[in-house]
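Subject: Interface between my chains keeps coming out wrong

I've been trying for a while to get a sensible model of this assembly. When I model each chain on its own everything looks fine, but I need the whole thing in one frame so I can look at the contacts. Pasting all components below, labels as-is. Any help appreciated, I'm running out of ideas.
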Amino acid sequence: MEENKNLKNFFEAVYDIVSKIPKGKVTTYGNISKAIVGNASKSRTVGNALHIVTDKNIPCHRVVNRNGELSGSIHFDTPTIMREFLESEGIEFIKGKVNLKKHLWIP
DNA sequence: CGGCTGACTGCGA
DNA sequence: TTCGCAGCCAGCC
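Reply #2:
Try treating it as a single job with all components included. I did that and got this:
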């Protein structure tokens, strides 16, 4: 099957995938980009999409970078709220980073 | 229309 | 895994 062309644009696709991330799981910007266009070249655009959005229905706190770091936490109300959310969902943190080995989810 | 920035990634050491 | 460098793409001014 080809990529989802039903969506209006790349941003819509990002929101759609992010909102489907199961509780207790996390994914990376690159994985989302790959799930949409087939490669991680637009990984930065994925982050931009979550940056402009203010919809609380989108669990953007479950999206981290390839190292499992909460690089986007600085854009939240507080730089610690992102980790608090993940911990409350059962995500394990190792040295201040998400345990991708255990909680990584791919679309 | 042109240039800069960014919630990134991949590669090599 | 961590550090540094370069590439890619879309949105914004």
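Reply #3:
Confirming on my end. Residues 10-11, 39-45, 48-49, 52, 67, 95 of chain A lie near DNA strand C (CB under 10 Å from a C1').
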